[in-house]
Amino acid sequence: MKETKLQKYLQSCGVASRRDIRAWIHDGKIKVNQRTVTDPNFPVRTPGDRIHVRNKLLKLNPQSKSYFLFNKPVGIVSTLDDPQGRPTVRSLITRIKERVYPVGRLDYNSDGLMLLTNDGDLANFIISAKNQIPKTYLLKVKGALSEATQKKLEKGVFLEGERLKPFIIEPVKMTSSGNSWLKVTISEGKKHILRNAFKYSGHPVEKLRRIAIGSLSLGKLPLGEWRELKDYEIAAFKKQYHFPE
């Protein structure tokens, strides 16, 4: 019989994202052997303990790991549930039989690549700030980005009293109206970091699309669609970013 911390075990079972699991535990929505548990480090024994998640009995054998790339449209909340009743990722992945959840967030007004999985260890590895997994975006910003402004962003600007990690910026093209398309890679995941940094620099973001998470690329995946990742793609990602097996 194996003993594991409650939150870690639920993540390994692909129940939900780390944030959602912590919230459910905090809100008393998890029971172990009919006892409400609010401590994420509560030890559970498997097999043996009966765990209820939001009043549903959890199957105690973690499911096989699945990985999907999803092209999120604008106007879709990047979670499985939304208190405001807005459409979520869940509404577009009903054909996925496995129980998977989004890794990280992509804001409501942005579109592009998201990873969906039930592999809690890999999800935590990707969103952990210490691992600095690069994420690449296509941005349309207002106006022409000067060389001086680009260099400042590439060195790391101060925003709200904190220096941001350097951006990698590659100009793509100018529009007929004088705005700029840029390819930008970042290695930290602060909320609205790109929108805030470019607004601060005098170039508000008009469109934002994530096109890559590390070596995982959006490619030609249609908007609102998903595809399952191949084993070799996941293996290559783990090897490149030194995922601890």
Please tell me about this protein's structure.
This protein folds into three domains: 2-57, Roll (Structural Genomics Hypothetical 15.5 Kd Protein In mrcA-pckA Intergenic Region, Chain A); 67-129 and 224-240, Pseudouridine synthase I, catalytic domain, N-terminal subdomain (Alpha-Beta Plaits), CATH 3.30.70; 134-213, 2-Layer Sandwich (Alpha-Beta Plaits), CATH 3.30.70. It is built from six helices and 17 strands. The protein has helices at 6-12, 18-26, 120-127, 147-155, 193-200, 231-240, and strands at residues 2-5, 30-32, 35-36, 43-46, 51-53, 56-57, 67-72, 101-102, 111-117, 135-141, 158-159, 162-163, 168-174, 180-186, 205-213, 216-217, 226-228. The strands form four sheets. Strands 7, 8, 9, 10, 13, 14, 15, 16 and 17 form a nine-stranded mixed β-sheet that branches. A four-stranded antiparallel β-sheet has the order 3-2-5-6, with no helix packed on it. It has a two-stranded antiparallel sheet with strand order 1-4. β5 and β6 form a beta hairpin. The longest helix has 10 residues, at 231-240.
Give a nutshell description of this structure:
The chain has six helices and 17 strands. The protein has 245 residues and is of the alpha+beta class. The chain has three domains: 2-57, RNA-binding S4 domain (Structural Genomics Hypothetical 15.5 Kd Protein In mrcA-pckA Intergenic Region, Chain A), CATH 3.10.290.10; 67-129 and 224-240, Pseudouridine synthase I, catalytic domain, N-terminal subdomain (Alpha-Beta Plaits), CATH 3.30.70; 134-213, 2-Layer Sandwich (Alpha-Beta Plaits).
